Amino acid sequence: MARMTIQPLLAAALALTLIAGGFAVWAGWSWYGAAHDDSAAYARARDKVLAAGEQAVQNLSTLDHKDVAHGLDMWQDSTTGDLRQQLADGRGEFEKQVQQAQTVTTAKVLDGAVTELDDRAGRARVMVALRITVQALKQQPAAKDSRMLGELTRTAGGWKLSALGQAPVGDSAAN
Fold first, then answer.
1. What is the rounded distance in angstroms from the CA atom of residue 115 to the CA atom of residue 145?
2. Which of 7, 53, 102, 141 has the maximum number of C-beta atoms within 10 A of its C-beta?
3. Minimum mean pLDDT range among 2-6, 105-109, 139-143
């Protein structure tokens, strides 16, 4: 008789163990599939591009006359290709102008978006909204909101700006 009461308990325990094991296998397989999905990899690449683009645009919108060399070094480190070369070619003249004007320009990223990403080709485009504040000696700071369009190229050192320009602003009154 004691043998009869143990068998239903053993069967119930075995069934629960099999159900739990099956659920664990299913959950693990689902997690593995999601972690190795192409769309997840693309999302991670997009996030890296956005972070690099926002930081590079902020770097190129920030400069302090008291430490121009460091600021211009950051500009060089944030860029590649023709843009990097243009900055290098004009560095001496630009350094003189900033020191004479005695300005401190800071930028704060308000928002950003990846508008295009070709991960295989290593090219991307971003739009970044910034608040740029310019402080001239003995003057009140002047702040301006700006939207910038940047092109990025993947390099051995990560994503870098290869072009940067002002985003066009539409005029809703023209309609």
1. 20
2. 53
3. 2-6
80-104: per-residue pLDDT in tens? 999 999 999 999 998 999 889 999 9
Residues linked to residue 104 through DSSP beta bridges, in sequence order: 64, 135
What value does the mean pLDDT of the chain take? Answer: 90
Judge residue 10's burial from the number of C-beta atoms within 10 Å of its C-beta, 0-12 exposed, 13-18 middle, 19 or more buried. exposed
CA torsion 17→23→25→26, rounded to 10°? Answer: 160
**Using CA atoms in the order 108, 149, 145, 47, what is the torsion angle rounded to 10 degrees?**
-40
pTM of this structure? 0.76
